[in-house]
Fold each of these.
Amino acid sequence: MPTIAPPPLRSGDQVAIVCPARQASHPELAAAVATLESWGLRVTLGASTNVAHHQFGGDDAVRLQDVQQQLDNPEIRAILCARGGYGTTRIIDGLDFARFAEHPKWVAGFSDITTLNCHLLGRGFQSIHGVMPLLFHQEAGQESLESLRRVLFGELLTYSTPAHPLNRFGTASGELVGGNLSILQTLTGTASDVATTGRILFLEDIDEYLYAIDRMLVHLDRTGKLAGLAGLVVGHFTNPQDNAVPFGLTPGEIINQYAARYNFPVAHGFPVGHEPQNLALVVGQPVSLTVDAAGARLVGL
């Protein structure tokens, strides 16, 4: 059954910024508010912003209530998650998506927000994996910000990346699924788990040990997440860590060890993840992937 794309934003629409994971203050979000207003949007700062409970944007009850309020409010046309970090899995099972299903809206974020992206996809709704408000001020990330704006306002995007020595040629089509590798592994077997068969998986991560990246790939493969893929897109694996005795492989080489067991195309070097160039992808959107000697092309359908 096709996934549901929320309606595109229009000038004058109201959007909310929330903190389902780590805290973000109003001063830290000021640049994002100004940017969103320059797009013609009205901005609501949720009750989980500008508060703190240890690392979190308020305790679990505060974050849960805030996200639920924005999901339920039909006047809110998009929910932007302020930042990632950790915390979304602590509240996800308490959220009720019944009213959201009556008035679907865009939910956007990445990293820890992979939890929400996957949870929504499992219920048949598309969402956005893209740059978050805490990072809107990055001058080097203006292409990322523009890609988010274009997706929110209903444009289908086409991305091209240069040739990469680890690429595997081929063509594929299917719905996009994926996000942060460590979160995807954590979601396995939960109510937020997602099917990957026939879909194009994209992966990214930050600060992970090389052996841990291997361990997570082993887990995804053992649980059948790789066997039925239509294609694989490899994003940024930022600042990988190693032990005193080196693991001996790069993140891309680790991923290719497991991808090589199957026949789908693989595109490395895609600009998605924990770096300023973090182009917006729509989780659940049908796309086509072409990988050849010229590079890779990902086209929204």
Amino acid sequence: MSAMTFNQTELSKYNGQDGQPAYVAVDGVVYDVTGVAAWAGGKHHGNLAGQELTTVIDTKSPHGRKVLNNLTVVGQYVAD
């Protein structure tokens, strides 16, 4: 399977609600956070799945980008 490309409209569909997977984008890469307990229901510390979160993870996250290493990459993010 080739990597998928997401813009913000497409990414927003993967919000972890109503049975949808939960995806987030950081620095142009889309990660699957569906199975991560901290992202249950598509929410994590006020952040919502289906969003581009580079600024949030770089400026507000206590763990930073190191947690991304444990996630599955599902595609690339391209701004609208």
